[in-house]
Amino acid sequence: MSLISMHGAWLSFSDAPLLDNAELHIEDNERVCLVGRNGAGKSTLMKILSGVYTRDGGEMKIFGKEYGDLTPKQAQQIGVAIIHQELALIPYLSVAENVFLSNEIEHNGVINWGETYKRAGELLKRVGYTGSIYTLVKDISPGQQQLVEIAKALSKNVRLLILDEPTSSLNETDAQRLLDLLVKLKAEGMT
Asked: 116 near 96, Cβ under 8 Å?
């Protein structure tokens, strides 16, 4: 099944084209790497897929359904998550609290902290995080922060995980761990 099918996508800001007639096809459970020079439109394309940018034209199908304008919330609801180069974590919240940020486990408007910490621990273990789930995000390494972001995406039942320059701030060891994790997630059926 074709997970992503984009034909003739284009986007411009102030009459300057960022994308011109872009094509992208990704099959289910495929791992894809976009490579190109700075300014080629790689991040722009990812932001269109995740609802951050609205394209000016072209066709886009995700999971076989045609989409016009997607919002980031709609993208998450259909199973698309993006982890931006600049991580979206709150430094003075715990690792577990960040995993469920904007996706809180609650009952009648009250956050269920027991379930939050239990499920965050399970997700963090799945991605290979070995630190304390109670540690503040500001006190963990960039590699560990990347794992927290991935656990956060997994908490939203993501089917398509988009990472924008995921190894740019990591040392060689953390970069290899991240790449190994992506192989593991692919084996579990994630694209």
From this structure: yes
